[in-house]
Amino acid sequence: MAASGAHGIGSLPCGSTFCSMLSSLLIKLVLVSLCFAPCVFPASDRTRTVEFNVKPGGVVHTFSEKIGKYECVFTYASQGGTNEQWQMSVGLSDDDKLFSCSIWRPLGKSYLFFTEFKAEIKGAKVEYASAYSQAGVGGQNDVALKEEEYVVGDTTVTHKDGKFRAELSKLTIIARTRHDEL
């Protein structure tokens, strides 16, 4: 399955409620499977969550984290306020076929205005991606960006010039590795 401009799964229309529910279920299943990985493997081998500061000032910054040969790279520029504490979680499924990357502000909605963003997956191909203007915390729900605000490529999720409304609080990506059985 290749990533498409529709941000959906396979040939399902991206705007359908069914696709949204299926995407949400897929993310939950993958994240649950990654959460149980530490029971079988040491946490440092399969999953990792790290904190970093998102810095305003209009300068382009990059933060990355990797597990084995797979890496998630978050590049952004933002304006307004002061540094915000964010987190990046990366995980590799038990069978090495899926790599996930989530980038988010744990406190929910960011008060910074993002002038650009790009998340790149190295070593794997994006199967699913979603971006949010608000991360669900404290009983609140995630608030998804409109699909016209960002574009999903084979290895990237990027803001769309002229359409992105400068609000970003969370990115979620699931990618298929190029793992071959011996």
TrEMBL record:
Q: Name one GO biological process term.
A: positive regulation of endothelial cell proliferation
Query: In its keyword annotation, does this UniProt entry include Signal?
Result: yes
Q: Where are the transmembrane segments?
A: none
Q: Which UniProt keywords apply?
A: Signal
* Cellular component terms (Gene Ontology): extracellular space
The residues the entry assigns to the signal sequence are 1-37
Q: Which PANTHER family match?
A: MYELOID-DERIVED GROWTH FACTOR, MYELOID-DERIVED GROWTH FACTOR MYDGF
- What is the official name of this protein in its record? Myeloid-derived growth factor
Q: What is the phylogenetic placement of the source species in the record?
A: Eukaryota, Metazoa, Chordata, Craniata, Vertebrata
